[in-house]
Amino acid sequence: MRTQLVNLGFHGIGHPIGRDFGVGERDYWVSPKLFQATLEACVRRSDVSLSFDDGNWSDIAVVLPALREHGLSATFFINAGRLGQPGFIDRHDLRELVSAGMRIGNHGLAHLDLTKLDPARLEHEITQGRRLLEELTGTTVDTLAIAYGTYNDAVLEQLRRLAYRHVYTSDGGAADPEAWLQPREHVKAQHTALDVARLLTQD
Ligand SMILES: [Zn+2]
């Protein structure tokens, strides 16, 4: 049996700065304490893949130093249309993540629910974000995390057509590392270190 992978997803650490929580977002910001405990549990776990969505300020101020301290790397799923807005990282921060060896993935241009867009707007949301991220980082961006975790057949068809290597959902459960569609487990505000340990072992 192939080794299963746990894709562990985070959003912000601490609290937003310079903006309010978005609708439903509060549940996805975790305490610095839980974040540190999670990273400690992930050291030497080659079967765990970390990702951070939305490009929050904490990516550069909290997450990057902590990843370096623990010798870990991660994928940052960024909304190019939010770069430099209050509470979000800017293009210089994006380059700093890349030069630190972090991977950059697309999270849509403007963090829209992909299932609510007509075909033209859907294409714009997922191709423009990618194009901007590739221009700004000088790297290939071939992974995408679906904003809000909501998708349907039309969304998946478009993402396949655009040749994404992996697409990340919020479906939960362990992942086959070779699969195109990668489920993720999100660490949430209400979780304890024990909950995270359960996510990591998929008990
Ligand atoms: Zn998001």
Descriptive notes:
The chain is an alpha/beta fold and 203 residues long. The protein has a single domain, classed as TIM Barrel. It contains six helices and eight strands, in the order βαβαβαβαβαβββα. It has helices at 32-42, 58-70, 91-99, 119-137, 153-161, 193-201, and strands at residues 6-10, 48-53, 74-78, 103-106, 143-145, 166-168, 181-182, 185-186. α4 (119-137) packs across α5 (153-161). The chain starts with 5 loop residues before the first strand and ends with a helix. The mean pLDDT is 96. The site of zinc ion has 5 residues, from loops.
Give the tally of β-strands: 8
In CATH, what is the class? Alpha Beta
User: Which regions have little confidence, pLDDT < 50, spanning 5+ residues?
Assistant: none
Specify the CATH architecture.
Answer: Alpha-Beta Barrel
What's the gyration radius in Å?
Answer: 16 Å
The domain count comes to 1
Which structural class matches the secondary elements? alpha/beta
CATH topology descriptor = TIM Barrel
Arrangement of strands in the largest sheet: 4-3-2-1-8
Order of helices and strands: EHEHEHEHEHEEEH
Helix content: 25-40%
Bound molecules: zinc ion
Task: Walk me through the topology.
Elements: E1 6-10, H1 32-42, E2 48-53, H2 58-70, E3 74-78, H3 91-99, E4 103-106, H4 119-137, E5 143-145, H5 153-161, E6 166-168, E7 181-182, E8 185-186, H6 193-201
Parallel strand pairs: 1-2, 1-8, 2-3, 3-4, 5-6, 6-7
Helix pairs in contact: 1-2, 1-6, 4-5
The structure holds zinc ion.
Zinc ion binds at residues 53-54, 107, 111, 147.
